[in-house]
Amino acid sequence: MLGKPEPVIVQVEINSENDKAQALAERLSLPLIEASSPWLANSIRLRYQDAVLYALSVDPAGAEMAVKADFQQVLSTRRRQQAQGELLIKAVQGRQRQPLFILDATAGMAVDSMVMAAMGHKVLALEQSSVVYEVVQDGLQRAAHAGISLLPDLHQAEAVAWLTINAEQMFDVIYLDPMFAESSKRALPRKNMQLLRRLTEAQTGSETLWSLAKTRARLRVVVKRPLKGGPLAGSPDYSIKGQRIRFDIYQSN
Ligand SMILES: C[S@@+](CC[C@H](N)C(=O)[O-])C[C@H]1O[C@@H](n2cnc3c(N)ncnc32)[C@H](O)[C@@H]1O
Prior knowledge:
Helix content is 32%, strand content 27%. By secondary structure, it is an alpha/beta fold. The strands form two sheets. Strands 8-7-6-9-10-12-11 form a seven-stranded mixed sheet, with helices on both faces.
């Protein structure tokens, strides 16, 4: 279980793409600031630049770290991620070869959602953080304009609430990747993961989400875990292991 994160101040920068910035600030009820204004402690900024939405923070040395959603890059990805993507596909597909209806209940930057959608699966992705949602949705829109058609369908929602409201909706597979506790041994996580950690509320409800997911997945629930971490809940039927992570698979009866 993660500790309570420090409250993060999120601000939207005004610049040449003023209309979009204003609309974003209004949608999220966030303050607009001049790009030149000094950085507040523990703050994150949203900035439109060249028609791309970035989330920015500063590192302890004062250097800006910018994160954007780039699904073209995800599709032409590096080798380690490719290997991880293959394991993910193996975990969610099992022996099925037909397209599946998958719920990614913890979408984050939607990299895993994208990998599953690119394999031809219909992916509904839920992300609770409105800031993360906006950054990812911006990337999805750019990907669609660039002609990529196999994309996840992203919604901003907390997954337990969404599944409760949409009580009749079943999925073939439900995929869960809640935030792991930080390993003290590891080097700093990638910058998009650092940003997600800062924006994410303390996640205490993952077991509840898992129990609910078990009742709504026709084939299986798949949970991403750190390689040496315990299972999120219960005993998985089997696991598929990568170098750093593993996928725990819970078959439906
Ligand atoms: C580790 S990240 C997921 C990374 C993702 N698999 C990817 O490929 O980018 C976990 C994300 O799940 C979201 N999340 C956690 N619990 C959630 C819930 N109950 N409903 C919706 N989103 C949730 C967090 O806000 C965070 O962005």
